[in-house]
Amino acid sequence: MSLQLGWPDYMVIRDENRCIKCEVCAKQCANEVHKLDSDYDKMMADESKCVNCHRCVALCPTRALKIKVNDLEFKPNANWTGSAIKEIYKQASSGGVLLSGMGNTKPYPVYWDKMLINASQVTNPSIDPLREPMETSVLLGRKPEKLEFDKDGKLKTKMPPQVKLDVPVMFSAMSFGSISKNAHEALARAATDLNIMYNTGEGGLAKEFYQYGPNTIVQIASGRFGVHPEYLNAGAMLEIKIGQGAKPGIGGHLPGEKVGEAVSKARMIPRGSDAISPAPHHDIYSIEDLRQLIYSLKEATNYTKPVSVKIAAVHNSPAIASGIARAGADIIAIDGFRGGTGAAPSRVRDNVGIPIELALAAVDQRLREESIRNDVSLVVGGSIRNSADIVKAIALGADACYIASSALIAVGCHMCQNCYTGKCNWGIATQRDDLVKRLNPDIAYERLMNLITAWKHEIEELLGGMGINAIESLRGNRLMLRGIGLNQKELDILGIQHAGE
Amino acid sequence: MELVAKGVYYSDLNEQIKQIAQTPGEIDVKEVLGHRYIGCGLTSHTTLNVFGTLGNDSACYMDGATLQVYGNAQDGIANTMNDGKLIIHGSCGDIIGYAMRGGEMFIEGYAGYRVGIHMKEYYEKIPKIVIGSKAGDFLGEYMAGGRIVVLGLGLKDNEEAAGRYFGTGMHGGAMYIRGPVCEALMGGEIAKKELDADDKEFLTQTVADYASYFDTDTSEIKIDEFSKYQPKSARPYGEMYVGE
Question: Which of A485, B157, B168, B197 has the fewest CB within 10 Å, making it most exposed?
Fold first, then answer.
């Protein structure tokens, strides 16, 4: 007798009248759920291996398959829920730290959905973006306090390095290693043609990706994987990764199985060795130390590229952001606690950090109060799901948004949250050649282009509706937002009024 | 070519060095008073002779240059160094050779805390740090490749060449430490190994190189006094997790 309930999380429902035993499901499932039983001449399923990624469902030519959440339930109990009990079973039998993929699954408030955007009526009429120019581009980087010109009208002030984005969206850090080469290629090509940026994560940069340099953010994390002078100079912007929203205070372990030939070359580590990047940079224990790393990167790139510092949204983000700005960063990237990841300890993912909406509002407010808001650009991520989230983020004070989960969903991610297994059936979070080739980089590229182009149109429509014709005029314009169903404290932190006020 | 660092801001000094280093050659930098980032990113055709105190994060991302230091060096030397050679006629501060991937560094005296953290190796690149006297705590933490050698010269009675928690999280490379160390204070992920013939040859050569750079008497060193420390596993945390 097993002490542990071994009942699977999902049920595979196969319509026997529709199934033609073509075995597509068996061939497509890297988790090996489906099998043709030749004795019975019947497709069988081992549901215990199913992760509900929908690959078999999507590819079944006769639509014979459905995956459902298993309806077997424990005795109803609001405290000891089924998942709480099953997690204890798992840990009691393995002694392991619970691991999961992608973002926070818990029902915390999503403040984007509790804010409403304004529109113009009659006076200050709205602008029709179909016939009037709309400015959606933004420049990221430190802005000078004032501009000085000589008597011929030429600019005397030396401008700090800036990065221009045609749309205030960037693909945030996903390393080659955590995602496949084809996924990486699609992001790089789309970023280039959209004139936005993608981010190497801490996975180094494979030689064939150097061509996308002008649209590349090269990341530097505690493991310093693949970091060398050529890499630092390959991108248009550098980013020091201190933290990420999915696992604030925690580092990353890319398991040795994912470090094949190509990943090994990009990360400049031996094949098959674990790539361990602990949470702290062991050379950073203070703001002064952070400044030292920021300026070492500036020295290495001759002060030609802006340096970003990425942190997770945590309780005292405003004070941390103030320190980062004073340490000489050009950009601060803040990642909220709903942000995704390839692997995170579930307890950290679900319980550590704060929502990006609150962190953003608080950081922007603090930097303004200290008169250092123009010293840095603010980039926010951690579950930006659509163009309205972006418009709200900019109105709260962001310069641009980072997206990663949205981008992966665009190329086929079905949010099964098993990225850490390396068996992604959609060819995204895997290094297995047979799975990687399922993701056609041309199609993925096109889908990313479509997504961001559509969002750009929507941003223009929303801006025009407010009677605003430039992103610059929306930034920090919190009068354009109203809260709905928020208490006074939440409204105060967000710096907005309630709907109807 | 000679530069005088005193009174020059570090970024201006480094700009001058980079300008001169565009053509191959040797540069003497005199009166260095803790100027930062000297030798940052420099490539193989440059030799820098630094007189004074080398500042924080010097030789960061260095990519082939030779840096001779006649004096002590501060913290973070050879941060993420890719290739090249450092010879320090003195002692060093903390976090020396962080994530160093190639090249070699010889330190005449002692080195501070956290030396060789995240040191790596990659194809033909096997970085090496040689410390004449002793190293502080956390030597070779999270080390993933390369070689660290601590010669233990000039120690007092009961003084050990490595501090506490050396090799914590180490998952590649090797450390050679001369003399006894308190193994109770050793990181949990490493084990002491017997020296083989290759190790002995490597150590003999390393000691000879050290002696030639510093004109120091190394006759007290016997190769058999070295112990080798290596990780028990290339995946120290492989069994730590269970899927949700």
Answer: B157
